[in-house]
Amino acid sequence: MIDPYLNESDILLRNTIRDFVDRELIPHASRYDVNEEFPSDAMSKLSKMGLFRLSIDENYGGVEGSNLHLAIVTEELARGCASTAVIYATHLSLCTKYIDLFGSHKQKASYLPNLVASNVLGALALTEADAGSDVASIKTLVTDTKGGFLINGSKHFITNAKEAGIIIVVATRNPSLGSKGMETFILETPCEGLTITPQKGKLGVRASSTCELNFNNVFIPKDNRIGRPYKGFPMTMQVLDTGRILIAAQALGIAQMALDASIQYSRHRKAFGNLISEFQTIQNMLANMATDIEAARLLTYRCASLSDYNQPFKTEASMAKLFASKVAVESASQAVQIHGGVGYFAPNVAERLYRDAKITEIYEGTSEIQRILIARSLLNQ
Questions:
Q1: 8-120 has which CATH code?
Q2: CATH superfamily, domain at 123-230
Q3: Within 10 A of 341 (CB to CB), how many other CB atoms are there?
């Protein structure tokens, strides 16, 4: 079948990752989830496949790749294990890509080789207790000191923080300055003054760590500030705009697995003497899921392609994330319904997908925030 967005190399990449997911991720995803186990073996194999190098400057160990490639990889990983997809996308799009886009030559040479080789894992410390969607309200403070900077404050809900060796920290010179006071820094961990506390009780993506970070006079060398003073906000927003493409891709993978599992189950489950796949109600549910997923995929691939051709894509990324996350939640819900009672209990895949899907409507900008961004774009035309 011809795909208007994928060429032969794109399809080869997708099929390679799909085979890996079927072989290495799907058989272990339930164990990762139930035990809240970091998927170390899977991450190591992804590294050997070179996937952490995609789209990063070849001068620092990266390989040629596009945002469409990253979306394809993230979607396939999420189909097998949403936690693995979250870990991968956070490391690559929010940390490695941040340095690749905005770091100095010295910073790139110092940090990118280890990040692309996954010798260290990356994270982005942005969200705070009172600054989630409202990024400009962060209060984590940066002050000058001899030879560098001191960071004081706290961050919440930071993905990969427990395992990370490199964390991009977003701080402010003065909370009253809002977005105009923000700066970003490269922090090597562990380090003196930084306390990392895992946050327990997550609904889904349980194999991906989420932590609270407390900074008590954490020292960062002067060479580790990214970009110019007071320019942290536009850099961070650019990184998040691209990151939303990958959240949409994660949602797609979750939705696709919900459909795949529902088709497989309906072909084997009997009720009233017939396979439930023969019931029109089930067929309607499957048809609606498949149609919505394909629409979400086209939105996601389109905004990824726009970004790769240096075309405006912010609004399209918001649309893709908004719609794909909605489709993920609805598809996972339908999968539980199709599976019936068995779908309500772990370790059934439908139960896990139902929990994993919800976060896609929340992180990197809630669905409500995406609607605001889309509306602003429409009204400002």
A1: 1.10.540.10
A2: Butyryl-CoA Dehydrogenase, subunit A, domain 2 (2.40.110.10)
A3: 8
Amino acid at site 62: G
Known catalytic residues? 364
Q: How many residues does the chain have?
A: 381
**Under DSSP, is residue 322 helix (H, G, I), strand (E, B) or coil?**
helix
* Structure-block tokens of residue 170: 């977003």
- Torsions phi, psi for 122 (to 5 deg): -110, 155
CA-based nearest residue to 86, from 43, 56, 144: 43
Report the C-alpha gap between 61 and 54 in whole angstroms. Answer: 10
d(CA 196, CA 199): 10
Is this model's pTM higher than 0.70 or not? yes
Does domain 233-379 bear CATH number 1.20.140.10? Answer: yes
User: Can you tell me whether residue 204 is helix, strand or coil?
Assistant: coil
Contact 338, 282 (CB under 8 A): yes
What region, left, alpha or beta, does residue 344 occupy, with left being phi > 0 and alpha being psi -120 to 50 degrees?
A: alpha
Residue 350: both structure tokens together: 């439908």
Q: How much is the pLDDT for 44? A: 95
Residue 1 has pLDDT above 70, yes or no: no
In the chain, what are the domain boundaries?
8-120, 123-230, 233-379
Place of tokens 């790139």: 108
Task: Evaluate if residue 344 carries a pLDDT over 90.
Answer: yes
Helix (H) or strand (E) holding 59: none
Distance CA 109, CA 169 (A): 19
Q: How far is CA 355 from the centre of its chain?
A: 16
| DSSP-assigned letters across all residues of 206-232 | TTS-EEEEEEEEEEEEGGGEESSTT-H
